[in-house]
Please model this.
Amino acid sequence: MERSTRQRTLIAGLLARAERPLSIAELLALGRAELPGLGQATVYRTVRELVESGELHAVEIPGAAITYERAHHHHHHFHCRRCERVYEVEGCPPGLTALTPAGFRLESHEVILHGLCAGCSA
Amino acid sequence: MERSTRQRTLIAGLLARAERPLSIAELLALGRAELPGLGQATVYRTVRELVESGELHAVEIPGAAITYERAHHHHHHFHCRRCERVYEVEGCPPGLTALTPAGFRLESHEVILHGLCAGCSA
DNA sequence: GTGCATGCAAAGGGTTTGCACGCGC
DNA sequence: GCGCGTGCAAACCCTTTGCATGCAC
Model:
């Protein structure tokens, strides 16, 4: 059974409200705004536990800091090379099974799109 | 103009011969076997320069160490969760443009497949 | 009262940087 | 002879860990 402390609730709440994935540093800064004295170890520990419990999902874009988002439906990401923002992308490309070599068992996949977002390509 | 020193040639050669992407630690170990006294800073510096010059490509699989491979044709990767090996996958899934939100400009993409390779699924 | 999450600070691992040496042209 | 790449070691993140405190039950 999970204990629900003030810090844990705060961190989970920050990510629930966030409109984009947040990094550890952002969580720490935002968290301290509401709970001064919040320790960084607590943020690291809490995030790790939430990831392991499946409540959070790590977003690891090569070249960008690792961020975390609430695990909800399956989706992918679009990374804007100009503003660096990460957008959620709905849906999956078809034909992934066709890429899988013979004899391999495909269990999951990730797709990362790179380019310019609407604002930055204008 | 690129200078071609012994160390640089050695590192590029190791990756040219490798049948799978290599990590910095592996490059250092393999390199020292042929050139004792090879410094790790040299490996880091050389790999970074080769990546920037486009000769190498970083393979960043979440949860695995970053490895490097020679940049050749466009391809994707299959990561076996049991033996941890990374395999090259030929071809791209169709329909990536359809995933891209309206107004966004898609420039490149990455696909990472996870599962079990032929050996590990047997 | 007891136990466990917390905060602080130190340790740890991987990567980068500073600098004097010395190889290669 | 000169310059730049190199090796060593220290510096630098970012993350984890140890431990004493104190809140929550």
Observations:
- Residues 3, 5, 7-8, 37-42, 45-46 of chain A lie near DNA strand C (CB under 10 Å from a C1').
- Chain A touches chain B through 38 residues (CB under 8 Å).
- The first strand of chain A starts at residue 22 and ends at 23.
